[in-house]
Amino acid sequence: MTTEQLLDELMASGLNITWYKILRKTRETPDTYTLLLKPVGEALSEYVPGQFNMLYSFGVGEAPISISGGLQGRIEHTIRGVGPVTRSLIEKSVGGLVGVRGPFGNGWPLEETKGCDVLIVAGGMGLAPLLPAIQYVQKNRRHYGEFHVLYGARTPADLLYKRQLESWSGKPDTQLLITVDKGEAGWNGYIGVVTTLFRYVKLNPDNTYAFVCGPEIMMKFTVSELKNRGFVDDRIFLSMERNMKCGVGICGHCQFGPFFICRDGPVMRYSSVKFFFGKKEV
Amino acid sequence: MSGQQIDLLTVLKDHPFLKGLDDDTIREMAKISTVMRFAEGERIFDEGEVHRKLYLIIYGHVALYFHIPARGEFRFETIGSGELLGWSSLLEPFRKTSGAVAVKDTLAIALDSEKLQRMMDRDPQLGYTLYRKIVMVVAERLRATRIRLIDIYGGGEKL
Questions:
Q1: Could you tell me if B137 lies within 8 Å of chain A, comparing CB atoms?
Q2: HSE-CB for A131 with a 13 A CA cutoff
Q3: For a designed S-S bond to A49, which of A133, B11, B15, B48 qualifies (C-beta 3.0 to 4.6 A apart)?
Q4: Which residues contact A93 (CB under 8 A, 6 or more apart)?
Q5: Bigger pLDDT: B71 or B13?
Q6: Which residue out of A90, A158, A193, A198 would a mutagenesis test of the B interface target, given it has the greatest number of B Cβ atoms within 10 Å?
Q7: Which residues of B are less than 8 Å from A218 in CB distance?
Q8: Is B68:B135 a contact under the CB 8 Å cutoff?
Q9: ipTM > 0.90?
Q10: Helix axes B23-31, B113-122, angle to 10 degrees
Q11: Angstroms from A137 CA to nearest CA on chain B
């Protein structure tokens, strides 16, 4: 069956999915690709930075993936191939079909934080949902104060968006610090976990909002570091990760205490989740 | 600051590691201190070497490394401006637990650790204060190492 025949059948199937074609595929790391998707018909509604989509690989399944960019109906997703669905998505070629539902959840508080300093802390794939927020702050730079981006990854080869990182490092109004767990030959940057970068940043906790995204354990240590530096819980925002399925807070797969991450998150104020954050069995 | 005359007293007084020490002590420390510049790629000390200097980094960037047979140099940590390098020069057997190489042009103040140790022996209050600061540095690095053991960038659902 050709892609066009499959598309005709899928469009007629009544599935509540919007179909997109892969317009561009960019290799970020050996197992991570960024797909730029273009709608086959009408595009989904515009996203806000921090939201996610459910991406569907026909015949394999669906996975929640953060939106990492896109303009005028096009959307970008950075996907690490770690399971059957994500592997199937990154194995698709340019022109291949991807089903999309979304955008779901809420985003980073980019309006609330205007007039204040912004600190971004990203670990590993956590940079993907923060990328549109970083781009938004840079485009609207005069509305924000100091802007710091701290990013940690396992190795230099695991760093995402190398071209963007290079362009940010040259910006005088953005402090970008990158660290890796394991330095390799030729790596002249920082080595150590992302929290060690706090030593090199001058922060004013009374006027700074922190946006944090990464695996929960990384966010736990980052929150601890922020608290040590005087941040109050209301000024810390986390992007939570759970196994989202329905995307609208019905199925319960992503329940987190009294919240459903797909509906009430993924971006959540630390003060509202701190009683459940990092707890066993939550 | 590169290429300029360094005001040793001011630089020592402003360094976070020496914060809180009185002016007389800082003046005594200045007498056993040397300003040192390391070019990118320059070795500062080698693993296993007896090296009696304690460095206060003013600016720049230093990587700590082990040499792993058949694998080469493994860089495991970096130390930057405002930090302490070479705490093992104050603890017996004064042998470096790792090598250090400047990964960017670096300016540091090197304190003669034998003379510093004698200062601390003469003034136990100073000794207590400095060893307390060193324990905090070592504890922070131990904590960072423990966090790295977890592999904090992995995990998540395998969908």
A1: no
A2: 24
A3: A133
A4: A22, A25
A5: B13
A6: A193
A7: 152-153
A8: no
A9: no
A10: 140
A11: 25
